[in-house]
Amino acid sequence: METDTVAIIGPQSSVTAHVISFVANELEVPLLSYSATDPTLSSLQFPYFIMTSRNDLYQMAAIADIVEYYGWREVIAIYGDDDYGRNGIAALSDKLAERRCKISYKAPLTPTATQQEITDLLVEVALTESRILVVHTFSRWGPVVFSVAQHLGMMGPGYVWIATNWLSTLLETDYVSSDTLDDIQGVLTLRMYTPDSELKRKFISRWSNLTRGTTGYGLNPIGLSTYGLYAYDTVWLLARAINAFLDQGGNISFSTESRLAKLRGGSLHLDAMNIFNAGELLRENILQANMTGVTGQLKFNPDGNLINPAYEVINVIGNGIRKIGYWTNYSGLSVVPPETLYSNPPNRSSSSQNLYSVLWPGQTAQKPRGWVFPNNGRQLRIGVPNRVSYRDFVSQVPGTDMFTGYCIDVFTAAINLLPYAVPYKLIPYGDGINNPSCTELVRLITAGVSILKQNFADFQSTMVLYF
Amino acid sequence: MKLIWVLVLVVCYNGVCLNGVTTNVTTRPPFVNIGALLSYNSTIGKVAKVAIQAAVDDVNSDPSVLGGTKLRLQMQNANNSGFLGIVECTSFIISCLFFSFLLQIHFLDFKDGL
What SS3 class is residue A351? Predict the structure, then answer.
C-alpha cells in the first residue's frame, strides 16, 4: 500500500486524459493536468479531472475574437484528428458561430501525418475560398505544415495563419532553426498569459540552473515554456490542497473495489485496484484552492476552470516574436495588460477591441482580405449583351464564345490588377440580330443574386452598368 | 475485445499489482505519494519534468507547506501515443488504472452491448 497515490499530476496529453479519467472516477484519485486542455475534459463526466492551466475553450474564443476583429467570416481548420484536435476545433466552431463566423473547411490529419499527406491536404485547402487558416495540434507535424505551405507558396501575401499555443510553446522551449523561422514569418500565435511577478522572475532566473546539462534542440538547454510554469504551480496547488486536507483530518487510506471483490482470485488480479477513500475530500480541497504561484493567482471558478483566462497575441517576425496585444475573457482583445483591464468594468464593444499592427505573411502590413474566388468553386458568370450596334464597346467574335471591345478590355485590365485569380465566364445575352434589353438582363441577374455572394453581386451590377 | 484482453495480459505480466488491504493513518503521515504522468521527450514534457521535480523539492524543503509531511513523487514516462503510452507504463498506479479501465470496458460491454 505504500505506493498508492492520492493524486496524479497529468496526464500530459488529452487523449490519455480521456482514458485515465474513467479510471480516476472509479478510484477517486484526482488528476491535475497542466497540459491536457481539451475542452471536453472539463465536462461533468470527469469530476476527478482538474485542469490546472487554461481550457482551450478560451483559446478558441480568443481566435474567434481575432477573426471577428479583422472582419473575416470563414476560416479553415487544420488539426490533428484526435481528442485534443477535434474537440478544440469543435469549440472553435461554437465560438465562431457566436460571432456569426464559421469554419468553412475542416482539414483533419492523422497524429502521424507524413509530409506527403500534408502536401495533399494543403493543395486541397489552397483551392478553397478562405485564406484564414487555423492550425491546432501538438503533433510533431505542426511545423511541417508551414514548411510545406512555404513550398506551395501559401506563406505569401493574402494568407493568414493562426497557430494555437503549440507554436508559441515550441518557440519558447526549443531553439528553432532559421529555416523553420523563415517558414513561419507573419504567423499569429497565442500564449497563455501569466502576469509579471517577483515569484515568476525568481523562477525564470533559476531555470538555467535547473536545466543545466539538458539539451532542448541541439546544444541549447531547454527553454522555459508557460506549461513549465503551470506544471510548477500544479505541484504547489496540490501540496496546499493536501495540507488543507490533512488539517481537516483527512485520512489517507485505500480500500479495494468492493463491487469487484466477488471476482477476486481470478486471473485478472482485481484486488489490485484501490479506491482512495477520501478522494472526494481531497478533490474539494483542490477546487477550493486560492494561492499565488509563478503563473499568478490560482483559483477555480464554479465551472472548474481557473479564473481570469487570458492569452498574449503574438506575431512571428524576423528572429523572434512580437506581442501585438492580449486577449482576456473579461474584455476581449486589448493592447493593455489584463491586470489593468480587471480594474475597469468589462468592455466587449467592438470599438474597444484593439491590437497593434501585424506584419502578415509575405512581409505585408496590409490586412489580408481573407478570401479569394475559389478555383474549385463556381465561375463568375457575366451576362454580356450581344449587341448589333456600338460593337466597338462590346461584341461577340463570330463563331466563338469570346468577346472583344472597349468594355472587355477595361474588364480584363482591371481583373489582371487583382492580387488573386478570378475565374469567369462571359455569357452572351441576345440573339445577335436585335439589341437585347439591358433592363431585362439586369433583371435576370438580380433575380439570380440570391445564389451569389454579396461581393459578387456588387461586382456584377457594376459590370452591367458600364456595358 | 480480443485486443483488449491481450493488453490485460501485458499489464498483469508486469506484476505490479499489490494486495488489497485497507490502511488507516490517523496522524499526519511522514509522506504522501503523488504520481506524475508525462512524456519526457515531448516539447511540453521535458519542460514539465524539470518544473515538477523542482516544485516537489521546493515543497519538501519548506516544512511550513505540509507541516513536516513530504511529497513522494512517482514520475512516469509515457510516450505521446495515447494507448501505447499507457501500456508501456509499468508503474503500479498506471497499470492498475489501466487495468480498471479495461474492466470498465468489459462491464460496459455487458451493459450496453458496446
Answer: helix
Strand B70-77: give its sheet, edge to edge.
Answer: A49-51, A31-33, A7-9, B31-38, B70-77
Nearest-Cα residue of chain B relative to residue A276? B22
Question: Between A and B, how many CB-CB pairs are < 8 A?
Answer: 220
DSSP code per residue over A190-229: EEE-----HHHHHHHHHHHHHTTT--SSTTSPPP--HHHH
Contacts with B, A 8-67, CB within 8 Å: 8-13, 15-16, 19-20, 22-24, 26-27, 29, 34-35
pTM: 0.79
Q: In chain A, pLDDT over 70 holds for what percent of residues?
A: 89
Does A101 reside within a domain? Answer: yes
Q: Which residue has the higher pLDDT, A425 or B66?
A: B66
Distance CA A335, CA A344 (A): 14
Residues 259-318 of A with CB under 8 A from B: 260, 264, 267-274, 277
Min Cα separation A92/chain B (Å): 23
In this structure, is residue A207 part of a structural domain?
no
For helices A454-466 and A438-447, angle between their N-to-C axes, nearest 10 degrees:
180
A interface mutation test: which of B64, B83, B97, B104 has the most A CBs within 10 A? B97
- Chain A positions touching B47 (Cβ under 8 A) are 173, 222-225, 227-228, 231
Residue pLDDT, tens place only, A274-293:
889 999 999 999 999 999 99
Residues of chain B in contact with residue A82, where contact means CB-CB under 8 angstroms, are 82
**Domain residue limits at A72:** 56-194+306-352
pLDDT band at B114 (very low <50, low <70, confident <90, very high): very low
Residues of chain B with C-beta less than 8 angstroms from the C-beta of A9:
34-38, 52
Claim to verify: residue A37 and residue A165 sit in the same structural domain: no
- Residue A442's pLDDT band, with cuts at 50, 70 and 90, is confident
Instruction: Tell me: do A173 and A96 sit in the same domain.
Output: yes
What are the backbone angles phi and psi of residue B2, rounded to the nearest 5°? -60, -45
pLDDT mean across residues, chain B: 66
Q: Are A271 and A258 in contact (CB under 8 A)?
A: no
Is pLDDT above 90 for A232?
yes
Q: What is the ipTM of this complex?
A: 0.81
**pLDDT tens readout for residues A18-58:** 988 988 888 899 999 999 999 999 999 999 999 999 999 99
Is A40 domain-assigned?
Answer: yes
Kindly determine whether residue B99 and residue A274, on different chains, have CB atoms separated by under 8 Å: no
